[in-house]
Amino acid sequence: MAEYNLRVKKILPGGVHYNFNMPWEETPIHFINTKNSRVWDMNNKEYLDLYARFGAMIVGHNNHEYNETLKECIDRVLSVSHCDLDAEVLELITKFVPSAEMIRFGLSGTEMVQNALRLARAYTHKNKFIRFENHYHGNADNIMGGKQHSVETPIPEDFLGDLKGTLGRADDIMAQQSYLIPWNDEECLEKLLKEKSSEIAAIITEPVCVNGGSVMPKEGYLSKMRQLCDQYGVLLIFDEIITGFRMGLGGAQSYFNVIPDLTILGKALGGGGVPVSALAGKKEIMELLIEKKVIHAGTFNGYTLGTFAIKATLECLSRNDGEALKTMNTYTAQLHQILRDKAKKVGMPLVVQGPLGCGAYHCCEKELTSPSDYTFDITSLDIILNAELAKQGVLMSSLSRIYPNILLNKEDVEWFDYRVEKALLETKKVY
Ligand code: PLP
């Protein structure tokens, strides 16, 4: 494995295709086989996969029904732009996602976020947007990273925050285009809108801040956001790239019963095997895409493998009144409880928080109530535990997120139970 890693690293910067590598990817693991919730590396070491390709993989590895649907696509209509499944798949999404009156497909979350912002600008004839500290909306210069800044000082000295020193980014674009404020803080949002709403086209938010530690919105916070948007003529964009389908078929918007103007879907939308994303929203906004009033382009948009993948995924998730997701949640609740119990047993501070489909653990005493609370102390211990879990055979996502899939079973829970204590004990040595 080490030799293989060196061979890859000679050509692939850092040995991985992204910069947000997992703690266990210091020496990247190359897999040779997968089944259900398990994956095997080149040494045939077996792992429980709760990393799930940054949360995308929800149907389970090597899911027979999913794979057969993809094979049908390959055999029939792989290289055309539109196919005979389009209508059915679009209708399926509108059935489950309340804000989805019209939908366009793309490949990544990043691009759909940008398209949503473009639409919001065109619709409102305003330019700026509000975003929140420690939320993540993709790999584009105008939206990635930064630290909180106030209404009084919209471009703070420490604007780059954790990304200070990152070369090649057009950082002034972020400051020109957006206001960055703390999340779960109604007062701050209201103050900003009161003063600047004439400039602001949209608020973009993760409805549960999974990227900031799986922090739930305070009661009434999202409804307040909705109300303020209506009051000030600002569009509400829910980035449901993670929460979509992981918090139920209707995503966070159904869960909280707060309906945004535009929704971005991705990751689990395509089951995990192929990249596909969607921008969904109210008809009167989405209709701006007709007749090229607002441009939306992409060579592979609506590609058939993605469409087939959505069909297979939504069928797997929705069958028998969403039985698969209920089972997934039942086993996940057991995983969460095991983590809590074992941590208590070995004397490590640990909380598990957030929705079952996209929760996270943190090595601290109390649940985080704001993404801004996700401090270095917590993060660094979380990372050590994440790496120790991998050594024991349990893979989790960065920022200690726990991503289950619908093929999770009793044996997986037992596997987890058997290995967690050792990882916690190792972590405790540095605590
Ligand atoms: N939005 C959220 C909430 C995400 O978590 C991510 C990726 O992790 C993105 C957008 C970007 O999606 P993609 O990586 O498909 O571009």
From TrEMBL:
Query: Transmembrane stretches, by residue range?
Result: none
The Swiss-Prot or TrEMBL record lists the needed cofactor(s) as: pyridoxal 5'-phosphate
Q: Which PROSITE patterns match?
A: AA_TRANSFER_CLASS_3
Q: Pfam families this protein is in? A: Aminotran_3 (PF00202)
One GO molecular-function annotation for this sequence?
A: pyridoxal phosphate binding
Q: Which UniProt keywords apply?
A: Aminotransferase, Pyridoxal phosphate, Transferase
Report whether Transferase shows up as a keyword of the record: yes
Listed InterPro entries? Aminotrans_3, Aminotrans_3_PPA_site, PyrdxlP-dep_Trfase, PyrdxlP-dep_Trfase_major, PyrdxlP-dep_Trfase_small
Record-stated family: Belongs to the class-III pyridoxal-phosphate-dependent aminotransferase family.
Name under which the protein is recorded: Aminotransferase class III
Per the UniProt entry, what species is this protein from, by scientific name?
Enterococcus silesiacus
